[in-house]
Known about the structure:
Four Helix Bundle (Hemerythrin (Met), subunit A); 6 helices
Amino acid sequence: MELNKYLENIIEEFKTIKSQAEKAIEQLNDSQFYYYLDNEANSVALIVKHMAGNMFSRWTDFLTTDGEKPNRMRDTEFEINDTDNRNLLMKRWEDGWKICLDVLNSLTPDDLEKEITIRFQPYKVYAAINRQLIHYSAHTGQIILLAKHYQGESWKTLSVPKGKSEQHLNDMKEKWGTNQDKS
């Protein structure tokens, strides 16, 4: 596979994760945004705060410093304080994603084999990117699950609606054709 294609694809995957999380978050009112199911669960607000903190730490000086920055206070990412209003948390989210996507857009195929560290552990750049994609995907899944739970029947699906799989498949077939049709 051409490494430029890998970088293009990975950037699109990160953008998809961001978009899905934001479409779920937009469906929540403030009470739902901050609500947590039990003392061990995270609210959507805490997940947003944590992901933003992770992005600042991992992507700042990505190729040159440990991905766990000394000034990161990870434990505080799981605490809501008086200044953590929704607008501020979403601003940090946007800023974190900007750092992430700017770094990804700046990488070259030659950078992928370079070695970086995260919490003193060495990673090839491509492995560190994949690690973050998995991490952000897991948290996006949590956001979607919580938003879907809170919205119930008001939920606006982010994918194929229940009971519409066959119609979706037919739409895709009409749009893209089948492999059998291509000779």
